[in-house]
């Protein structure tokens, strides 16, 4: 680590800087949603292109089918992601109601649960009792502690709508790229397919490398893994189209 990076890191961990940073409301990252949407969008449209090419369909058929699948699947995926987020929030709300009811009915039992949770974290003796008393003094803190420690649930920063939008936007933007060669006049069907293949490969590799940069992974390893998975999906679509065309006697 360079001296400048170390100084910046130390400045960010001064008491006032820590308080200011933690005072900002948490927002769940939409990067996983965007990565998932981008990969799925590219796989979806290039799979259509590969299947159409394997079946010997005209380029305009691949373009129409590709855009139709792009919009329909992108919307479906965004709605699914939204519903998943809503289900998670509903689960948290249900667990919160249960815990508040238990605190009202059996407060000593719930207090013992808090005691056991922090005992497992290494607290003991008088310090353990002080922690339990501090947590149980505030009903909201008590409930949130139970949700995190007992259920493993947290809704901090969770926004189903934002996640759905990130998924849909990435799906549409990235998924459009393999279709671009089919919108260009003057290219033969083989050239269009090869250009689409090149764009799809670059997208798979690029998404994997971007993901690795954010999460501190090996760029080439992550990029190549994403490339292999995307290529495999496209290969299956091409084989399906080719075999279907042969079986149906086209």
Automatic annotation (TrEMBL):
It is found in: Endomembrane system. The chain crosses the membrane at residues 163-184, 190-214, 226-248. The keyword Amino-acid biosynthesis does not apply. GO terms for biological process: intracellular manganese ion homeostasis. Its main location: membrane. Keywords: Membrane, Transmembrane, Transmembrane helix. GO terms for molecular function: manganese ion transmembrane transporter activity. InterPro entries: Ccc1_fam. GO terms for cellular component: endomembrane system. PANTHER family: FE(2+)/MN(2+) TRANSPORTER PCL1. This is VIT family protein. It comes from Hydrocarboniclastica marina.
């Amino acid at each position: 680590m360079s001296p400048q990076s170390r100084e910046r890191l130390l400045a960010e961990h001064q008491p006032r800087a820590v308080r200011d940073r933690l005072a900002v409301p948490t927002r769940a990252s939409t990067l996983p949603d965007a990565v998932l949407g981008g990969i799925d969008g590219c796989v979806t449209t290039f799979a259509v292109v590969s299947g159409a090419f394997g079946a010997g369909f005209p380029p305009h058929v691949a373009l129409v089918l590709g855009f139709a699948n792009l919009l329909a699947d992108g919307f479906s995926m965004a709605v699914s992601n939204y519903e998943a987020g809503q289900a998670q929030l509903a689960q948290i709300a249900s667990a919160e109601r249960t815990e508040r009811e238990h605190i009202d009915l059996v407060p000593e039992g719930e207090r013992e649960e808090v005691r056991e949770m922090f005992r497992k974290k290494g607290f003991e003796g008088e310090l353990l009792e002080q922690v339990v008393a501090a947590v149980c003094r505030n009903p909201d803190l008590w409930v949130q502690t139970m949700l995190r420690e007992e259920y493993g649930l947290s809704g901090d920063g969770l926004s189903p709508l934002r996640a759905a939008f990130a998924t849909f936007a990435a799906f549409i933007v990235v998924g459009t790229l393999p279709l671009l060669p089919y919108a260009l006049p003057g290219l033969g069907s083989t050239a269009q397919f090869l250009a689409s293949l090149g764009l799809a490969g670059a997208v798979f590799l690029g998404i994997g490398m971007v993901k690795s940069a954010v999460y501190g992974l090996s760029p080439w390893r992550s990029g190549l893994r994403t490339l292999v998975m995307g290529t495999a999906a496209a290969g299956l679509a091409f084989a399906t189209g080719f075999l279907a065309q042969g079986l149906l006697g086209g």
